[in-house]
User: Which sequence fits this backbone?
């Protein structure tokens, strides 16, 4: 019997079937359309919900090679202190403390993390970077951070100058010359970021935080010295400055 004739007979018989038989017939022939439609509706609803409820980022701090002490617990309160200090409504805006970038550690994938970090920097998403001094060195000498003499207020400069993290601009020039010569194996003597007097052209590009820093109660960084630097292309300089005051209070 031709398929269309068989189909007509089934439809005719279904007119006199029970509700259960009709439902079974409908499900047999249309279940994948129903499932597909439901999935599409769920996806659209999910996207709309995320768009409606997504908060604008008020501040983005990257904790390079940082880990949360209590990462198995709810850490949403870690940003609360800074939100209160800076007057940020966390019901409307989000503050990000990002620990996802791990470079040169057992827990990290150096290539993926490096690529991710460079994308973040290029996109201007980050406001500050907090890390141990050694991890900051590579990015400081790539001129990713602001010269604090041009960024901080006179009051802040006077208050924090004894805690400055320095790079030597003479070494920056050496690295630029090596890159122009395609000498990518060149490793300069970076010097001690604590001792600008030993540098030719010292530039303060970060601030060492003390042991009482509120951030260190929730986050661990390898090494003894932890410093904060402001990204040169931050789009929220006022909050970056406020964050420094928060850490150094």
Assistant:
């Amino acid at each position: 019997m031709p398929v269309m004739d068989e189909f007509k007979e089934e439809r005719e018989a279904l007119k006199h079937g029970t509700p259960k038989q009709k439902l079974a017939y409908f499900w047999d022939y249309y279940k994948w359309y129903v499932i597909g439609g439901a999935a599409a509706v769920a996806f659209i609803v999910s996207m709309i919900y995320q768009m409606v409820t997504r908060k604008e980022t008020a501040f983005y701090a990257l904790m390079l090679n940082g880990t949360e002490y209590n990462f198995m617990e709810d850490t949403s309160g870690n940003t609360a202190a800074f939100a209160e200090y800076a007057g940020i409504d966390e019901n409307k805006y989000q503050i990000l403390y990002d620990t996802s970038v791990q470079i040169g550690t057992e827990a990290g994938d150096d290539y993926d993390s490096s690529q991710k970090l460079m994308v973040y920097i290029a996109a201007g998403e980050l406001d500050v970077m907090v890390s141990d001094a050694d991890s900051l060195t590579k990015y400081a000498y790539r001129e990713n951070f602001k010269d604090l003499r041009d960024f901080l207020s006179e009051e802040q400069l006077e208050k924090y100058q004894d805690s400055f993290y320095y790079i030597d601009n003479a070494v920056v020039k050496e690295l630029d010359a090596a890159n122009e010569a395609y000498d990518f194996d060149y490793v300069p003597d970076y010097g001690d970021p604590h001792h600008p007097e030993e540098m030719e052209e010292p530039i303060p590009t970060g601030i060492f935080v003390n042991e009482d820093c509120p951030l260190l109660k929730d986050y661990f960084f390898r090494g003894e010295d932890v410093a904060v630097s402001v990204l040169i292309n931050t789009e929220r300089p006022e909050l970056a400055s406020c964050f420094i005051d928060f850490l150094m209070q």
Notes: The chain has eight helices and eight strands. The CA atoms of residues 43 and 128 lie 35 Å apart. The chain has a mean pLDDT of 82. Helices lie at 3-14, 19-53, 80-86, 110-123, 133-140, 154-160, 169-180, 237-248.
